[in-house]
Amino acid sequence: MDIASLFDAALAWISDHRAWAGVVYGLMAFGESMVVLGVLIPATGVMMAAGALVADGTLPFLDLWIGGAVGAALGDTVSYRIGRWLGPGVHRIWPFSTRPEMLAAAERLFARWGWIAVVVGRFIGPLRASIPTVAGMAEMPAGLFQAANIGSAILWIPVLVFPGTILGWAWALAGSGDTATAAWVAGGLVVAVVAAWVAWRRWSPALFAPPPDGT
Question: Could you give the CA distance from residue 133 to residue 76 in angstroms, rounded to a whole number?
Fold first, then answer.
């Protein structure tokens, strides 16, 4: 079964089992946010596509928000604890043992920005689980880590859900014959995505630059 079929099956299951939507969404967020599992479980596409089911009223946004935020925060907590437990030994576990650049990027980001890196890393797929692990390796205070972890988890879920929800609204408007409004809604989303991409291209080099002391 290919990835597209898995996405379709997952969305169909969530749609048919609405009462479990928050739990399933939370498990996806947990897998996405946990070191190693985040590489093996490509759940981001399903999590974003679920926004279309929010748009048509099939799924309640609040359930996805609560379940997803809890799952994401728990996944990062486990990653953080693994980092504290293994320390430099994290470099020897897969996928970091075969792709050391993944951990190196997270280490540079954390060295420069500290707790801010925990927040920013939540929104960068390849670094989502590795930043908390690096924070644990660096023995970041648990209270400060959890503040950044929980806060970013609460913000992350709407960022994932809303694009699919907006597209779902645009599709519904087009289906009802209001193509002009649908075009404006879809166009606004495209502009927002392009603006975010341009901003990322502009600022990401500074984000990943070495810290001022060169370490």
Answer: 8
